[in-house]
Amino acid sequence: ASIFKDHEIIQCSMDLLYVLDHQTITKQILSSASARQELWQGWLRILTPMQNMNPHQRRLGLHVEYTNPAWANALTLHTDLMSSTWLVLEALRELGDRTATQALACSTCETFQKWAIQAFAVERRLLQTGFRLGQTYKVS
Predict the structure, then answer these.
(1) pLDDT number for residue 40
(2) How many angstroms from the chain centroid is the CA of residue 50?
(3) pTM to 2 decimals?
(4) Which of 34, 71, 92, 111 has the most beta carbons within 10 angstroms of its beta carbon?
């Protein structure tokens, strides 16, 4: 996608990582229930469509094997977002707010369960039409 070619989303994720790397700021954000919920919901809006984004594919059988460089951007984004996630979870642990941590975990589980159900339904419809999935994964 062009957003990856221009590195816009990766720059945003790096900026967020730099902000959250300051524990005082992270704790301040997370101490507000509404800010915490808004941050996490935004997180889930980014992570959900990223599932199976830019799968790593190689062309074999050529004189020189070719690997598409686009997967590196997806890996960079994933790494930045996971680093930020750990900073958020560590700050919640230090705040000692188990209820907030549990609420975020439940929200994440519900969001990804909905995604898995939708992905499974799309796969099933495609397979029923005779379409052959290019990926070797299944959502079940």
Answers:
(1) 84
(2) 5
(3) 0.61
(4) 92
